[in-house]
Amino acid sequence: MERLPEIDGARLLRSLDELAQVGAIEGGGVCRLALSDADRAGRDWTVARMRALDMAVSIDAIGNITGIYAGSDSGTDSGTNGRTGATPAPVMTGSHIDTVRTGGRYDGNYGVLAGLEVVAALRQAGVRTRRPLAVTVFTNEEGARFQPDMMGSLVYVGGLPLAEALATRGIDGATVGEELARIGYQGTAAVGAPRVDSFVELHIEQGPVLEQQGLRLGVVEGVQGISWNEYTIEGVSNHAGTTPMALRRDAGHAAARVATFVHDLALRYGGRQIGTVGAMQFAPNLINVIPHRAVFTVDLRNTDNAALRAAEEEVQAFVAQCCEEAGLAWSRRALARFAPVAFDCALVDEVARHAQALGLPAMRLPSGAGHDAQMLARACPAAMIFVPSVGGLSHNVREFTRPEDLVDGARVLMRVLLARADRPLGAP
Ligand code: HGY
Ligand code: MN
Ligand code: MN
Questions:
Q1: pTM of the predicted structure, to 2 decimals
Q2: Which residue from 8, 89, 284, 294 could staple onto 251, CB 3.0 to 4.6 Å apart?
Q3: What's the CATH number where 288 sits?
Q4: What is the DSSP letter of 172?
Q5: In whole angstroms, what is the distance from residue 52 CA to residue 54 CA?
Q6: What are the UniProt keywords, alphabetically (predicted)?
Q7: Which residue from 113, 110, 107, 111 is spatially nearest to 368, judged by alpha carbons?
Q8: Which residue, judged by its Cα, is nearest atom 4 of ligand 1?
Q9: What is the 342 CA–ligand 3 centroid distance (Å)?
Q10: Domain for residue 4, yes or no?
């Protein structure tokens, strides 16, 4: 391609501001829990934008939305199916537009809108790449309402049976299938065996590393392993004023001990081990009643799968020990478990090359957060591009990335996508 089209930074930033109005909450953030009415409104807005860009839009059985910007070549594709005259498998980008309850406006949304900005720039320049470009919005990346996270992309690559995903009951009692149908996004396109040439996801770092290093761009080499479990501890509720400490069966106290243990374990392991007890409910949750039940979540992550396994085992053993000591019962429900993922070396190098060509100081790093790219990596070469998060803040309404970083990230994304989409058919 002789003249590269240019990203229109103002248009990209405008689209981020527009989508941020959908499900807007106080403080400049967004609440669009997966499959909620706000998520439907965000989906409607995004589909309309894809259609305005003359993209062919398809929705699959788990609600993933894919917009295709047709390529120029319908020759024999790169061996994916070998049919002469078949359309080559698309080069895909995208991310998610569902958010946590206290979400920022960039997490996920930025990757989708930057992908649409690349298409808008190509279209404006009257340019088509050899292979089609796809921009996909994956369902329920956050996993805040329905676990596991990255659910839509996991089903898309065949890592979770569709029926099991649709039957998943969320934190408010509704199932994925019910909510998908209710918001009108249970599509017909098949899932489980995608034809994707490669996948590149642009995302905010959501951590402090790039900012602390004074860098502009992250060349993401992989994603750390994730372990999500929900523990339930059962005791006996009793009067807070009359029950001697030695006679208590206090589920709340045991849960609090575990929360401290998880935090201390992460400090003790060091390295990239982290641990979070993010959600905890007591019953009956009253000031003068000893809790008879505590339900809480444990989020453990590490780039080292063996260490992550060891951490999971230690936490479970400590729960058992606390309950043994206090005469309590306990149970565990696994919510998500994904091993660390390494991205495609050649694609990661491609990201590094374009960052350098644009003069953006960059570093290679793993991702602390989970992303759809870690699921797509099961089906095709995948990589990610990070831009800095101010103050390392995310999953917080004050999430912020500087406009110049947002625009430069999109410029790198465009160059990587075009290089991938224009390489000769049949080339690796
Ligand atoms: O939890 C995560 O890392 C992602 O935001 N779903
Ligand atoms: Mn995200
Ligand atoms: Mn997130």
A1: 0.94
A2: 294
A3: 3.30.70.360
A4: T
A5: 5
A6: Hydrolase
A7: 107
A8: 370
A9: 20
A10: no
Q: What value, to the nearest 5°, has the Cα angle with vertex 426 and ends 351 and 341?
A: 40
Is 320 found in the same domain as 348?
no
Note whether residue 428 is domain-resident.
Answer: no
Task: Measure the CA–CA gap between 160 and 138, rounded to whole angstroms.
Answer: 14
**Are residues 88 and 14 part of one domain?**
yes
Statement to judge: residues 244 and 391 lie in one domain: no
Give the domain-ending residue among 338, 365, 384: 338
d(CA 90, CA 270): 41
Q: Which residues line ligand 1 (CB under 6 A)?
A: 141-143, 149, 369-370
Residues 109 and 239 grouped into a single domain = no
Q: Which of 142, 154, 228 to mutate to test the pocket of ligand 1 (most atoms within 8 A of CB)?
A: 142
Per-residue pLDDT of the chain (428 residues; tens, 9 = 90+): 556 799 999 999 999 999 999 999 999 999 999 999 999 999 999 999 999 999 999 999 999 999 999 999 864 443 333 344 578 999 999 999 999 999 999 999 999 999 999 999 999 999 999 999 999 999 999 999 999 999 999 999 999 999 999 999 999 999 999 999 999 999 999 999 999 999 999 999 999 999 999 999 999 999 999 999 999 999 999 999 999 999 999 999 999 999 999 999 999 999 999 999 999 999 999 999 999 999 999 999 999 999 999 999 999 999 999 999 999 999 999 999 999 999 999 999 999 999 999 999 999 999 999 999 999 999 999 999 999 999 999 999 999 999 999 999 999 999 999 999 999 988 88
Going by C-alpha positions, the residue among 293, 155, 160, 169 that lies closest to residue 233 is 293
Distance 96 CA to ligand 3 centre (A): 9
Domain extent at residue 91: 9-224+340-421
* CA 360 to ligand 1 center in whole angstroms: 26
| Together in a domain, 192 and 286 | no
Protein residues within 5 Å, CB atom, of ion ligand 3: 107
Considering the domain architecture, whether residues 142 and 67 belong to the same structural domain is answered as yes
Residue 108 Cα, ligand 2 centroid: separation in angstroms? Answer: 4
